[in-house]
Design goal:
Blueprint lengths: L14 E8 L2 E8 L2 E5 L1 E3 L1 E2 L9 H6 L5 E4 H6 L3 H5 L4 H5 L5 E4 L2 H5 L5 E3 L4 E4 L6 E4 L1 H11 L3 E3 L11 H22 L5 E6 L5 H14 L3 E4 L8 H14 L6 E3 L5 H9 L4 E3 L2 H7 L2 E4 L2 E4 L19 H5 L2 H10 L2 H28 L2 H11 L9
Parallel strand pairs: 4-15, 5-6, 6-7, 7-11, 11-12, 12-13, 13-14, 14-15
Antiparallel strand pairs: 1-2, 2-3, 8-9, 9-10, 16-17
Helix pairs in contact: 6-7, 7-8, 8-9, 10-14, 11-14, 13-14, 14-15
Cofactor: Zn(2+)
Subunit structure: Homodimer. Within each dimer, one monomer is responsible for RNA recognition and catalysis, while the other monomer binds to the replacement base PreQ1.
Protein name: Queuine tRNA-ribosyltransferase
């Protein structure tokens, strides 16, 4: 696959350096004026300009270097004029590191019957007040410019699952046309612009999408249309071939994924960046990630457990509170419980990513992955 996207007339304020490889896995570094992001990286999701239950200093303390903001929701509420009144999204939410914003495409298309797709873009009823609203590539690029995003995502259509080849082709081709318009609308904006590979579960369409994006030229590439209801083996099938076809000199981002096991499998196949609401959402529901799997803190047998949640974890929660206390907070519905749970889950994810980075750097990824699955009592899945 060529790298035409590296020959762009404007200057991008993001740079990517590939530091080491171990098999298909990559250890890299993204550099922005606002800070460095070591890859493979996991980005906590701050949908409404906040990672739920977390102060910015707490997010930073987990080891997160970059977060994700939601263009669609921030555009509707509070609106870009409010945010611009503070400077940009960094100033509004007091997060000093880099921010990636999604384009709003996934949220628009998740509205189902509430939206109407045309070549120009999408018209839909606002989930906030029911008002008729329009968003297309140009609008999405302007909103993300107003937010001051460090990484901007193109406006695309997330191919539904299941989708036969004809449906997936029409969707993918529309996304390519919108990708061209997104690139033009992005203009001289020095923020990084990422293309999104679509095509459903069809390898020929995924390859055509990637070729089309390469011809347009982007600063990084994302894999979209996964974790949308497909079986795990279907996702892995796409990851077995797609990351390796992407340009080696650009970051690769797997959108909306996922469980710790999904991060490991993505990294093994050459993915550099991830985001998902799972660690924060699961934390609020009392599902806590530990090395052996998932601990459900609301289960009654934790009531008298005076041990730390995870003795191998160095987060504020594990260093200060017992499982019994976390169980008590959960049973009482205390907001502190969700906050402490979220601190732990996000730290668990960051420790996992740090371990993966170190293993790639040392050339010991296979042993790291074997140990990861052994702690869960699972065999290591084969690489395709």
């Amino acid at each position: 696959m060529g790298t035409r996207g590296s020959r762009m007339s404007r200057t991008c304020r993001m740079s990517f350096e590939l530091l080491a490889t171990d098999g298909k896995a990559r250890r890299g570094r993204l550099t922005f004026p606002r800070g460095v992001v070591e890859t493979p990286a996991f980005m906590p999701v701050g949908t409404y300009g906040t990672v739920k239950g977390m102060l910015p200093r707490d997010i930073e303390a987990t080891g997160a270097q970059m977060i994700l903001g939601n263009t669609f929701h921030l555009w509707l509420r509070p609106g870009t004029e409010v945010i611009k009144g503070h400077g940009d999204l960094h100033d509004f939410m007091q997060w000093k590191g880099p921010i990636l914003t999604d384009s709003g495409g996934f949220q628009v298309f998740s509205l189902g019957a509430m939206r109407k797709i045309k070549e120009e873009g999408v018209t839909f009823a606002s989930p906030v007040d029911g008002a008729k609203v329009f968003m297309g590539p140009e609008e999405s690029m302007q909103v993300q410019r107003d937010l001051g995003s460090d990484v901007v995502m193109i406006f695309d259509e997330c191919t539904p699952y299941p989708a036969d080849e004809d449906v997936a082709r029409v969707s993918m081709e529309l996304s390519l046309r919108w990708a061209k318009r997104s690139k033009v609308a992005h203009g001289e904006n020095t923020a990084a612009l990422f293309g999104i590979v679509q095509g459903g579960m069809h390898e020929n369409l995924r390859k055509r999408s990637l070729e089309g994006l390469d011809e347009i030229g982007f600063d990084g590439l994302a894999i979209g249309g996964l974790s949308v209801g497909e079986p795990k083996h279907e996702m892995i099938k796409v990851l077995d071939y797609l990351p390796g076809l992407m340009p080696a000199d650009k970051p690769r981002y797997l959108m909306g994924v996922g469980k710790p096991e999904d991060l490991v499998e993505g990294v093994r196949r050459g993915v550099d960046m991830f985001d998902c609401v799972m660690p924060t959402r699961n934390a609020r529901n009392g599902h806590l990630f530990i090395d052996t799997g998932v601990l459900k803190i609301r289960n009654a047998f934790h009531r008298h457990d005076n041990t730390p949640l995870d003795p191998t974890c160095d987060c504020y929660t594990c260093k200060n509170f017992s499982r019994a206390y976390l169980h008590h907070l959960d049973k009482c519905g205390e907001m502190l419980g969700s906050m402490l749970n979220t601190i732990h889950n996000l730290r668990h994810y960051q420790l996992l990513m740090a371990g993966l980075r170190e293993a790639i750097q040392q050339g010991t990824l296979a042993a790291f992955v074997d140990a990861f699955y052994a702690k869960r009592g699972l065999p290591t899945p084969p690489l395709g």
